[in-house]
Structures are given as C-alpha cells and as structure tokens.
Amino acid sequence: MTIRPLLRFGPVRRFTRNLLCPVDLIGRPLLLKYTRDAAEARKEVRGHSRLARHYRVPACHAHLRVPGGHLLAYERLPGGTNQGLLLDLLNADEPSGDLRTYMDRLTAAYREVILGTAWPADPVHVVRKLYWDRAAPGGRLDTYYAGKDFLIADGLIDIPVCRLDTYTLNINGRRHHLDWAATLRWLRAHFAKGEPVWAALTQGDPTDVNLAHPLAWFDYDTAGMNSIPGEFANFLWYASALGGWLVPTYNPAAFADHPAAFDHVPANTPEIWRAAVDHTTSTIHIDYAPRLSAPRRAAVTAYWNQLVRPIADRLWPGADLANLLRPYLAMRILGVYNLIDLTPEDRLVLLARLAEAMSPTFDPTAYFCPLEWPCPAP
Questions:
Q1: Is 129 found in the same domain as 65?
Q2: Same domain, 140 and 285
Q3: How far apart, in whole angstroms, are the C-alpha atoms of residue 243 and residue 236?
Q4: CB neighbours (10 Å) of residue 196?
Q5: Are residues 49 and 186 in the same domain?
Q6: What is the CATH number for 181?
Q7: Is residue 229 helix, strand or coil?
Q8: What's the CA gap between 121 and 116, in Å, rounded?
Q9: For residue 224, what are the β-bridge partners?
Q10: What are the backbone dihedrals phi and psi of residue 131, each rounded to the nearest 5 degrees, phi first?
Q11: Do residues 198 and 333 both lie within one domain?
Q12: Residues 254-264 pLDDT 10s
C-alpha cells in the first residue's frame, strides 16, 4: 500500500521580493506566497477581495503572520512546466486557436468590468505603486537616474545621455529629439498633478505570468482602482517588450518553470543595424528592427482592437490616444529596469523607443504592433 504524505512541498521560486512555493496539503493543491512587507501583504489581501467580485481568481484560504513576514495560502490552479499561463500560449511559432480564444475572453472580461467601474478618480484614490510612487521624490526615477550620467551606448554611441538634447536622432529614417533631463522633469511633474484620471477596477499588473490559462488573474498587491491608460500601457509594453525580451534576459528566474520562453527570445529581441554619429551635423543615426513574434503580435493586436479602441471610443471619443498613453509608456520604459544596468545595445534600443514615444508623431498602433521588418539592403 502506498502512503501519500500529508504535506508535500514543491520548488521555491523567487519573484521580486516574494517567495512562492507549491504545496500539497492532505491532497489539496495550494500555492504559498511569502512576503516580508506587511503593507504589501495587506494590499494583496485587500486587492484579492476586491478583484474576486469581478474576475476569476484562485480562492485565498489563509493569511497568516509568520516570523519575519506574512504567508498567504491560495488555491493552486492546474499548471506545470510550460503550462498554465498566457506566457505559454505566446511561446509558439505561430498564434494558435487557443490564443485567439483566450484573447477574446480576456478582452471581453476587461470591457465589461472596466466600463462598469470606470470613473474619473482623484489620483490619491488610484493604485499608485507602478506610476505615481515611481515618479515621486525618492521613487525609482530618483533612485535610478537622479544625479547620474551615463553613455548612450558604450562602444556604439559614446555620448553622455545629458548631451542627448544637442543632437538630432535619426531613427529608422525619421527625425526625433530627446531631452533626457527634460523628460525626467516632465514625468515627475505629470504624476504630481492632482487632476482626476479615468480609473477602473483591474488587477493593475497584467503580465504574461500574472494571467493564467485557463483565464484567471494572479498577484493582487496592485489590484484596485487603476488608471485605465496605465493598465493599457502596462499590458502593451509587457507583451511587446518585457515578456519576450527583457525579462527573460535580465530576470530569467521568473521563467524557471516556463523554459520555452527562452527559445523565443531571439524572435522578440530588437536587432540593431546601424549606430553611428555624424558630428558635422550633430546627428545620431540608429537603425533597428523591433522584433515581435507572431503570437505576441496577435495578442497585442487583439488587445488593441478589442479592448483599447472600444474603451477609448466610449470614454475619450475623439481624444488622441498617443497623449493619453505617453506618460505611462515612458514610465514603463524607464521605471522597470534601470537603463544604466543594461547592455549598451539594449540601452540604445530603449532610448530609441523612448524618443519615438515622446515624439509628436507617436503612433501607438504602429509602435506596439510592428510589421515584419525586412533585412536591410547590402
């Protein structure tokens, strides 16, 4: 006779400052989440409770104070190696029928809840962690960049970022201008305003690993009334840049249980064709291809057409979506990874992407859903 253990632990995984561990307790599959931050634990419990009224979330069975922190016990949804997340539907060569069905359900759920809960909120009542707090004094913008200068791309463009405003940027044949210091000041000022922002009840951090397949939502410390343009910018930037390229490159532990992600990094990594300076005309030439795999392109396109556009048509008829998304996108580019810590090539691409986002000609549709780029002429 085989005796099943009453308690069985799986591998412990670290996600940012938290630890996750699958556990089988008397045959019941649980997911334990440990955090040291008491305030974050309280936000997680409160966010889960608010989200559960509108979205499918795993049941929360317990919230315990333990030595050194807090422990939350959740229902563990089915999953495994390369299974159980939106990420796994994106880790393919071509978009599948499952991915299309998933995006239909995801966008339908969001349309219903966002339109049912949207209202112009005072920024003090909006979840502030990913945008307002990072732009505030002492936040990530200050921690990463205050009083610091660095080269645009060591060995490629050996010009300090503080002098970027003295050059014209020729990016893929288009002229741009980027004032580094002015951009940081603008972001700080934008998120210091007291003007109402359109907010709705969402999970707030809709990444490839926070969305389960079949559809459910994980991770609740940013759940609540979130800025709607911020919600859009978060998904669009993660799906088109972070999830397929930057996160597996700089935080591979996040995908330890989904190793197929690493096979698809080349299909999602921008390729630099040219990086040169013409000092006679004070022009920096950057030619690059913004690679995006077919499944990710399909997901972003569905999200844009089935969620962003319909919501924008209802809440901001006739408004310029570029202006609504720009501050949130810029914060995602600058406030997730410290550009100083990246390779020169990756830093150069992100500065180019920032310049494109800050441009008066910024077109979100082309920006997030790039077409296949041909190889440059010899």
A1: no
A2: yes
A3: 10
A4: 13
A5: no
A6: 3.90.1200
A7: helix
A8: 14
A9: 202
A10: -125, -70
A11: yes
A12: 899 999 999 99
| Region for residue 115 given its phi and psi (left: phi exceeds 0; alpha: psi -120 to 50; beta: otherwise) | alpha
Domain limit, last residue, from 25, 53, 75:
75
* 63 and 208 part of one domain: no
User: What pLDDT does 371 receive?
Assistant: 54
- Please determine, for residue 22, whether its predicted confidence score (pLDDT) is greater than 60: yes
Q: What is the pLDDT of residue 373?
A: 43
- Do 188 and 225 lie in a common domain? yes
Vertex 248 angle, CA 245 and 252, to 5°: 165
Helices (H), the chain: 38-51, 86-90, 97-117, 132-135, 140-145, 180-190, 228-237, 247-250, 260-263, 265-268, 294-303, 309-315, 321-335, 344-358, 364-368
Residue 213 pLDDT class (50, 70, 90 cuts): very high
Q: From 17, 50, 75, give the residue that closes a domain.
A: 75
Q: Is pLDDT at 9 greater than 80 in this prediction?
A: no
Contact between 328 and 357 under an 8 Å Cβ cutoff? The reply is no
Angle between helical axes of 97-117 and 294-303 (0-180°, round to 10): 30
Q: What pTM, to 2 d.p., does this model score?
A: 0.92
Q: How many domains does the chain have?
A: 2
1 part of a folded domain: no
Q: Please provide residue 23's backbone torsions phi and psi, each rounded to the nearest 5 degrees.
A: -140, 140
Residue 176 lies in a domain: yes
What is the domain-level CATH number for residue 11? 3.30.200
Give the three-class secondary structure for 303. Answer: helix
CB-based contact 20:13 (threshold 8 Å): yes
293, 358: one domain: yes
From residue 283, alpha-carbon distances to 203, 356, 362 in Å are 43, 16, 20
Task: Identify the pLDDT of residue 374.
Answer: 41
**Whole-angstrom distance, CA of residue 87 vs CA of residue 212:** 9
Q: Are residues 34 and 156 in the same domain?
A: no
Give burial (CB, 10 Å; 0-12/13-18/19+) of 19: middle
| Residue numbers of the domain that contains 210 | 86-368
Amino acid 32: pLDDT: 83
* Digit-coded pLDDT (tens) for 288-327: 999 999 999 999 999 999 999 999 999 999 999 999 999 9
Query: If 0-12 CB within 10 Å is exposed, 13-18 middle and 19+ buried, where does residue 215 land?
Result: middle
Distance CA 260, CA 90 (A): 10
